[in-house]
Specification:
The chain has about 325 residues and is α/β, with parallel strands linked by helices. Helix content is about 35%, strand content about 20%. The radius of gyration is 19 Å and the shape is globular. The N and C termini lie far apart (about 60 Å).
């Protein structure tokens, strides 16, 4: 008898026989959304996060030829302050607000196109200067330093998510939940501080870990009106259950209730663009395509079949600005 000592193979066998308990069942769509959003919020541990005074404070203002950069911070949870930057284009505004989320990287300076450490220039050249792109497309651009990265736990060698993520799991919280919490609070802080930003018209975008945060935030936060999630939306079985990923990607028990494509039903009918790389090794295209078929079915159920799009770049794990922004313009027009 041949013996098997492969624990990953066993987990994948369990996955193959585990139904998705809260996939949309064809009933009342709004009722399903309400139940599914409540379940996701609980899985993220966001009911364990504590509201407090924002105390938003502008620290610095710098004028450049193409925009004004404001550096500010606010209190997200008691005793925890979130650093941010807002880029404001010339003119009276108000301008749509784009929340620009760097991937699993050395910090939000990547989204600002500001190289600080070795390797940053190459990362930025891969299309990850989201804030500058957002300005070029007529938005105010908000960067949020995500927990575990940059000023909030990382360093010049990269992010450090593991210990604080594991601590969260012991408390029934998640790092993804924290990042969503900070995005919501950041939008509130911008609304308080900057009349130039239209916080009723909010794009949330990012690549890799930033795309993951943008996707989940859009599932939970109705104030996000448009989403671009790059190199992040894929079946769990093909991606984070198939290979090594950072601990910050994991939400306990989530696959019992949803696969990732199912969650797009919580974004519908708001415009959603999913960006993928044909050769992305950690979010493989077959899993992306399977997820997107689910996304399309959910958008049809929501009565908005043209409000979702999949843009596939001819390369690996990076952002594809031209494809992404064009697809976003097309889905925006469909609304």
């Amino acid at each position: 008898m041949k013996l098997s000592h492969d624990p990953l193979a066993r987990v994948q066998a369990v996955l193959a026989h585990t139904p998705v308990a809260m996939a949309y069942d064809g009933g009342d769509f709004a009722d399903w959304q309400a139940r599914a959003r409540a379940q996701l919020t609980a899985l993220l541990g966001m009911d364990r996060m504590e509201t407090c005074d924002l105390n938003p404070t502008i620290e610095a203002q710098e004028q450049t030829p193409g925009y004004t950069q404001y550096t500010f911070h606010f209190q997200s949870e008691p005793g925890y302050d979130t650093p941010c930057c807002l880029l404001v284009p010339p003119g009276a505004g108000p301008f749509p607000l784009a929340v620009c989320l760097q991937g699993h990287s050395k910090g939000m300076h990547i989204s600002l196109g500001q190289a600080r450490y070795p390797g940053d220039a190459e990362s930025i050249a891969g299309g990850r200067d989201f804030a500058l792109q957002a300005i070029a497309h007529g938005n105010c651009a908000l960067t949020v330093e995500q927990r575990g990265m940059g000023l909030c736990g990382g360093d010049e060698n990269g992010p450090h998510c593991y210990v604080h993520t594991m601590g969260n799991l012991l408390l029934g919280r998640t790092t993804i939940g924290e990042r969503i919490w900070d995005i919501r609070r950041a939008i509130d802080a911008v609304s308080r501080l900057f009349e130039q930003a239209d916080t009723k018209n909010v794009l949330c975008m990012g690549n890799s870990g930033g795309g993951t945060a943008a996707f989940y935030a859009s599932c939970v936060l109705p104030e996000i009106t448009r989403t671009i999630a790059s190199c992040s939306v894929c079946t769990f079985g093909d991606s984070i259950m198939a290979m090594e990923h950072c601990s910050c990607n994991f939400i306990p028990h989530i696959r019992q209730y949803f696969d990732m494509g199912d969650l797009a039903g919580l974004i519908a009918p708001r415009p959603l663009v999913i960006v993928a790389g044909r050769e992305d090794p950690i979010f493989p295209l077959p899993g992306v395509l399977e997820s997107y078929r689910t996304v399309q079915a959910l958008y049809r159920a929501a009565g908005a079949p043209d409000a979702c799009a999949l843009a596939i770049g001819e390369g690996g794990h990076r952002f594809y600005p031209d494809l992404a922004w064009e697809a976003a313009a097309q889905t925006g027009r469909s609304r």
